[in-house]
Design goal:
The protein has 116 residues and is an alpha+beta fold. It has a single domain (31-113), classed as Ribosomal protein L7/L12, C-terminal domain/Adaptor protein ClpS (Ribosomal Protein L30, Chain: A, 2-Layer Sandwich), CATH 3.30.1390. It contains three helices and three strands. The protein has a three-stranded antiparallel β-sheet with strand order 2-1-3. Helix 1 packs across helix 2. It is rod-shaped, with a radius of gyration of 30 Å.
Length: 116
């Protein structure tokens, strides 16, 4: 009978440690609520609406009304998407401008992600 041949030694496995990576949560981008211009709402309506929905004082509302009138759009609020959707919906639900007989409804607002 022959003696068993010696088995080769199993390689030693040394666990390697992955370098520790600092994990930072990724923040969601803020969103802009943008008021869109039309000819069916007065400055007074815009100032009043911005005051009631956002709490802006009259002088700030006037500045935004002038911006939307001259440029066609104005960022009226920036923040989290869920709140931006709520603010947009509040603008859409505000109703018609009683000062203009042909006005049939609220102003239009859209939501856009910011660049940052």
């Amino acid at each position: 009978m022959t003696s068993p041949s010696p088995q080769p030694a199993a390689p030693t496995v040394v666990p390697t440690r992955e370098p520790e990576v600092e994990v930072r949560p990724r923040l969601l981008p803020p969103y802009n609520v943008i008021l869109i211009d039309d000819d069916d709402h007065t400055y007074e309506y815009v100032i009043e609406m911005l005051g009631k929905i956002f709490g802006y004082p009259a002088h700030q509302g006037f500045g935004m009304a002038r911006e939307v009138d001259t440029t066609g759009r104005c960022i009226v609020w920036t923040g989290a998407l869920e709140t931006a959707e709520l603010r947009r919906d509040q603008i859409h639900a505000y109703g018609a401008d009683p000062r203009i007989p042909r006005c049939r409804g609220s102003m239009t607002a859209v939501i856009e992600a910011t660049d940052g």
